[in-house]
Amino acid sequence: MPRCLLITFDAFATLFHPRRPIPELYASVARSHGLNDASITPATLQSAFKTAYKAESKAYPNYGRDLVLRGEYGGPKQWWTAVIKSTFANALNQPDLQLPGGMVERLIETFASREGYSLYEDVEPCFDELIKYKVHQSEFDCVVTGAVSNSDDRVSAVLRSLGLSVGRTRADEDRSSTLLPGFEVTVSEDSTDRGLQPNDIDMVITSYEAGQEKPNQLIFDVAARQADRLLSAEKSTKYDLNDIEWTRIHVGDDFAKDYQGATNAGWRAILLDRERTFTDT
Question: H-type helices in 203-259, by residue range?
């Protein structure tokens, strides 16, 4: 029986982190657009951002995906626009605040690239070794790598901007991810699986596209199914895709969402405790 390995990683706080604290970046962009009110400080923005993010998450879970599917909501762009506007309105205590033109778009662009994020120092060496492992190991007949993230579809753009090679496979729950309004611009040719290529990350599965956030089992099931789909597109595949023994491993920093979510879905899990939250005392 063929043996295959699927190893996936959480994105934010596992593979990459903000280049500067998010409130500092918000304040910097605000100043560059002429919003110089003394109340616009990282401290006030941090509190205001948390309030706005929590409120939007409650009102429109998973970037309003259910409403998006009914044609009643605009998806991540509308979601983040509301968070940004509410953040500054809360910070300035001006509910009807009108932000300078282009400011919202600038912030969204910042957090879709290396302007907003940096890789952790151990990430590139990790994927360098994984690429070698894919080629030279003999334990598995194939190795598939992925990112599984509670996020919108900017993750792949962030990873590419940080120098990682990213495959084209995305989630496809309910509707093709290419039909959901989001940030990633694709065409039909780009959305077609082309089998396993020499990528650092073969597939990106986000909660917005998959339909549920971790720790829900659905997002892990979608990742497992898409790994099968990648193999089915691999022209060199010479074995029955229904007769594969999979080893599935997920790596992440959140105990409940990543570790427990993966184990409850029948995967193996590795908790990457970057903040040393679970260090013995």
Answer: 207-210, 217-232
